[in-house]
Amino acid sequence: MNAGLAQAGSVVQRRPVPAITLIWALVAVLLAALSPGLTQRSFPDVDDALRLVQVRDLLAGQGWYDLHQYRLTPPEGTLMHWSRLVDLPLAAAIALLSLAMPVGDAEFLAAVAVPLLLLLGTMLFVGDLVWHRLGRLPAVLTLLAFVLVPVLPGQFQPMRIDHHAWQVLSVAAALWAIFRKDPQRGGAIAGLAMAAGLMISLETIVMAAGFAAVLTLRWLLDPAQRMWLVRYVQALATGLVVLFALTRGLPDLAAHCDAISPPHLALFALVAIGASLLAVPAHLHPAVLIGGLGASALCGIVVIASTAPACLAPPFAGLDPVVQKYWYVLIAEGQPLWRQPPGEALPAALQCLVAVAVAAWAALRGAVQHRVFWRDLAVVMAVAALAGFATQRSLAFAGLVAAIPLGWLAAQLIARWQATPRIGPKLGVAAVLFAAFLPGALVGPLLGAAGVQDAGASAAPATTTQCALPANLRRLDALGSATIFTTLDFAPLVLAYSHHGVVASSHHRAERAMRDVIVAFTREPETARAIVAARGAQFVAICPSVGDAKVYRTVGGTRSLAAQLAAGTPPAWLERVDVGAAGGLMVWKVVPAR
Length: 594
Hints:
Elements: H1 2-14, H2 17-34, H3 46-59, E1 68-69, E2 78-79, H4 84-97, H5 103-134, H6 136-144, H7 164-177, H8 183-200, H9 205-221, H10 226-247, H11 262-278, H12 286-307, H13 321-326, H14 342-365, H15 371-390, H16 395-419, H17 423-437, H18 439-449, H19 470-473, E3 483-485, H20 491-497, E4 501-502, H21 511-522, H22 525-534, E5 539-542, H23 547-556, H24 561-566, E6 574-577, E7 586-590
Helix pairs in contact: 2-5, 3-4, 3-20, 4-5, 5-6, 5-7, 6-16, 7-8, 7-16, 8-9, 8-10, 9-10, 9-15, 10-11, 11-12, 14-15, 14-16, 14-18, 15-16, 16-17, 17-18, 21-22
């Protein structure tokens, strides 16, 4: 009997999937309980709403390669930079579920289930990695840390159907793969995972470079490990070419700077060719290796510089100054960590720094058999932390990796707590554990005591504003089919919950239309009238409590169109239309000029 129990325990130890799945179920229930818009079926972010619009259009027959959103900046529409890789699972889930229920319910269930299933996949990759490398308890604590690390939980909450969770999953898959035993298979899986991540969004390029740095370090320290990098860059380049052909193809060969395009493909192909040639000799001097890899990358950069020089600058460097000032710099998730409220920035920074320090310490002083693992993880963690500090939404990558050293640290502290009989050391261990996992609980009071302002949470998203709720927006359908001139943050919700078109939304490829919207709402009504007429809008609508509507009133002052509309004193060329909506939704019909 004892032998049978031992064998069963051994099987559980080798197969962690049931335990990981149970932890995922607990985390999923917690995320669902904490999702504020779930009962109202509202999205956490306006990008999630527009993603659903893209999926609906695909299901309605829009071409696979046609990524235009035709109700955005009609009649020509706006070519989106989003990937069909994200649309496809949602479309498949909705199509399947709609066979058994109304389409609206199918969309809701798919929007709840898909993010949570992506969380399951992410937890399986990370949990399996830690379980087999560090043990069962660190793996369990790592997965529980998922709900306490920066930004990560929010990317997997129900209704969060935009692309960010897919990016995190691709990073988790690559992280799992680079610690496999077989460099041929592990490198290839990591490369394919990052190819998918890059096709979904170029934001993962820093993490792709981070994995390449780890594998290059392995090659430098041991030439016998060179196939890790070779297979990684080969699979990365090949995967990008294949996925580009499958999701963008010949219809769109333009040199876009905000998504993978032919110049980027050339860069990755040249790096892959260079690494493959450098791997032919069994041994290379480190300087030759670094110089050869650098020359390969430089050749790719030259290709980009000669075919798409604008792509060498940051993605939003060329934005219209008005759009840059009154839209881009106000998007918190796209800004560096040091521009966030201190009450959010400091806890996130502290957790990242603690995770880097723990991984570095374990690489230098930890168990000998685990030092290589910790060395590589410390490099990835440092890269992820730098990415998160540079762009707040990239903290999700840092949170993913940070969960591992934090989970391991928690296991060590628990063991220390159990081993000491004295209450003083026990309290000290508990305090360290609390500070590592809940730094916000300490930082908030300290900032308050120091008199630091704006230490609270960010403003509520536009989707949770009462006049932006689906029930209110559906009342717009009573207006007939029209183009509505509204604010950028409110526009995606109009698209998602009505059949109208909008002039612009918070999506930078419609830059000229975005500028027109900002100028119209921040200037006097007569200037706005000319812009509204030029854009062919039949109605003007605002939700005064949505963030950018407040910005326009502040910027334009009391004489601005936004301020006059919010005050209920519209110009004569606008006629109030009562759509019966609650919560402050205001609509006017444009009176044609005589």
